[in-house]
From TrEMBL:
It comes from Papilio xuthus (Asian swallowtail butterfly). Keywords: Signal. InterPro entries: MBF2. This is Cuticular protein. Residues 1-18 form the signal peptide.
Length: 105
């Protein structure tokens, strides 16, 4: 099998109003790491309520594995991202985003 295709995978999520998080390898100088998923998530704030949203990605071929994940804060917000299922070494990831009270994601 082609190990470049089998082992090299990256999920890059661009999320609005969250802390930036990088897990695993998201760049290499050989150029074999590639972005395969990109999503911007945005929700408005509700007074006295914390907003939650989950972002799910699954690589369509089961033999591909996630090698790196980047959650990028576009506006220096206070929301907290967490990987609650899958992630590095799996072919899927579920990321939970939780905002501060009164603020959106």
């Amino acid at each position: 099998m082609n190990y470049k295709i089998l082992l090299v995978f990256i999920a890059l999520l661009s999320l609005v109003n969250c802390k930036s998080v990088i897990v695993g390898q998201i760049y290499d100088h050989n150029g074999i790491v590639r972005k395969v998923y990109d999503k911007v998530v945005e929700t408005s704030g509700i007074p006295l309520i914390k907003r939650e949203q989950e972002v799910y990605f699954e690589y369509p071929l089961g033999d591909q594995k996630i090698k790196g994940i980047a959650i990028k804060d576009l506006e220096n917000g206070l929301a907290e991202p967490s990987i609650n299922r899958g992630g590095l070494g799996f072919n899927f990831v579920n990321i939970k985003l939780k905002s501060e009270t009164w603020f959106g994601i």
